[in-house]
Amino acid sequence: xxxxxxxxxxxxxxxxxxxxxxxxxxxxxxxxxxxxxxxxxxxxxxxxxxxxxxxxxxxxxxxxxxxxxxxxxxxxxxxxxxxxxxxxxxxxxxxxxxxxxxxxxxxxxxxxxxxxxxxxxxxxxxxxxxxxxxxxxxxxxxxxxxxxxxxxxxxxxxxxxxxxxxxxxxxxxxxxxxxxxxxxxxxxxxxxxxxxxxxxxxxxxxxxxxxxxxxxxxxxxxxxxxxxxxxxxxxxxxxxxxxxxxxxxxxxxxxxxxxxxxxxxxxxxxxxxxxxxxxxxxxxxxxxxxxxxxxxxxxxxxxxxxxxxxxxxxxxxxxxxxxxxxxxxxxxxxxxxxxxxxxxxxxxxxxxxxxxxxxxxxxxxxxxx
Length: 369
What we know:
Elements: H1 2-74, H2 78-85, H3 90-109, H4 118-125, H5 127-131, H6 138-155, H7 161-172, H8 177-187, E1 189-190, E2 194-195, H9 196-204, H10 233-251, H11 254-262, H12 266-269, H13 277-292, E3 296-297, H14 302-310, E4 318-319, H15 321-340, H16 346-352
Helix pairs in contact: 1-3, 3-6, 6-7, 10-15, 11-15, 13-15
C-alpha cells in the first residue's frame, strides 16, 4: 500500500507539473497571438493612411501637370511657371494664375486690332515677382491686381500692349484709378506753374480773394487725359534692347540713308554707264563712310554737280555720311519705337522720356560672337 501511495503521489506531481507547463505555454501563445493581431491592425491602419497620402500626392501632381499644360496652351513658358510651382501652395497658385490669365486674355481679345502675344503672357506671369508683397498669398494678390486693373480699364481703356500692361502694373502696385486721376491733376500744369489741383485748392479757400474783393466763382476745368505709363526696371531694360535693335536695323539701310539724307535716288545709285561711273564710286564711298565714320571728299565736285542738277542744298567739299547716317537711324528708330509702344502724342512722349534716357541716342545692338 505504501509503495502504491508513493507511486500515486509521483504521478500526481507529474500531472500537476505537466498541467502547469502546458498552461504556461498556452499563456505565452495567447499573449503572442494578441500582440501579432495588434501589430497587424496597426500595419493595416498605416497602409490605409499611406494609400490615402499616396493618392493625395498623386492627385496633386496630376493637378499640377494639368494646370501647367493649360497655361502652356495659353502661351506660358515652363520656366516662367516655376515661380508658381515653388509657391507655398502650388496648386492654388497655378489655379489662380490660370484663372486670371485666362480672364486677361479674354479681355485683351475684345480690344480692336489687339492680339495678346507670348511676350505679353511672360510679362503678365512675371508681375508677382516684381510687385507681390512677400507675405501676401498669391490668390489674394492676383484678385486685388485684377480688380484694380478692371477699374483702370474702365477709366483708361487700353489701346496698345503698353497701355494694357500699364493698367495691369497699376493694379499690381495697388494704385487705383482715382489716385491715378488725382496724380494727373497734380502734375498737369495750368496758369504758369500752378497745377489743376493747386488751382482748385486756392479757389476753395474762403479767405482767397482777387484785388477787387471778389471770390472765385467756379473751379478750373479739369483735364482728365490718361496719365503716362509707369515703367518698371525690367520694362526699361527690355525697351532699351528694342530701341537698339531698331537703331541697328535702320543704320544698316545704307541705300535708303543715301537717298533720304543726300538726295541721291536709289535708281541713280544703281545706274550703269561711264557717265555715272563717278557717281557710283561716290555712293560706294558714302556707304563705307556710314559704317566707318570717315568723311568723304567730293572729288571733282561730283556731288556738288548732282545736287545742283536736282535742286538740292550744297554740302561742301567733305561729306559727312556717318553723322547723317546716325541722324537717320535715330529719327526712324524713335518714330517706330513710339508707334510700337503706343506713345501717340508729343505730350505723352515728353512725359515718359525721362524714364527712357536711351531715346534719341545712337546705340547699336551688341552682336554676340
